[in-house]
Amino acid sequence: KLQHRETRRKRITSYLVSNGFYETYHLSFVKEAENLLLDPHQSGVKVMNPLSAELEFMRTSTLIGGLKSVAHNLNRQQNDVKLFKWGSIFNLEEENIVEKKTLSFWMTGNNNESNWHTNASKSDFFFAKAFVENAMKLGNTKNYTTEAFSGNSIYAYGLNYISKGEIVATVGLVSKNILKETDIAQEVFFGEIDAKFLLESGKTETQYSAISKFPKVERDLSLVVPQQVNYGQIRETVNKLNSRLIKKFYIFDVYQGEQVKEGFKSYAIRLEFEDKSKTLEDKTIDKLMQSLSSSLETDLNVEIRK
Fold first, then answer.
1. Which domain holds residue 275?
2. What count of other Cβ atoms lies within 10 Å of the Cβ of residue 306?
């Protein structure tokens, strides 16, 4: 188990480094005010013999330490910063000290440099979200749902990843109040993943399979979706079909405007089907598409455009 854990950790670290991230280190001891900035009701675990009067508490998040590293770089005209950290955070739960290991990362400025054939692209929420999900994919973790949120003490907006009723990862745009406290004037995206979930919950072995000899089939659905319904809920509905024939599912177009009624948005989704033992027949795919359409209409109040 330890071997698999370390293999996954090295794999994820290599992935982040190859995408321009640098590993950062900082103390686990913080000022009480830094913990209270994140949660006014949680000052954190107090150290019995602190190194100094300003380092009396254990951090409840790696966020502030990472933002200090970001600010250090920005103050030296390094405006494109991508950092990550494997570390621990500490909280009090019913007077018990709970240590949780996490993988955290910070992004600001451009995601990549411009060159003769590629323009620079600014770091945004979707880049940050992709790094979280790719890290979880490298950890073989798949059993999670997503839930969007807007506005809390840490994030201006973001996305929670939930497994077995617990939040196992969060990613989003850091709130302006926190950026102001750390003297940062530009947007910073922050992600934090539970390392135990990331490194231990997935399958322990990588499995390989031969490329199918039979052609894949693509089908599209045009949906009119209520504003409160998000992509994660649609993905969960697709996953509930539990069909081995569905190999890929994604949204390829989103539209909101005059042609869509108020309170709704338009999604175009694509599904890829494949059977490794035979050529798929239309009637088999039609049956799956009908089941999916019925579930979307019943569970999420989605309208299917014919």
1. 217-305
2. 5
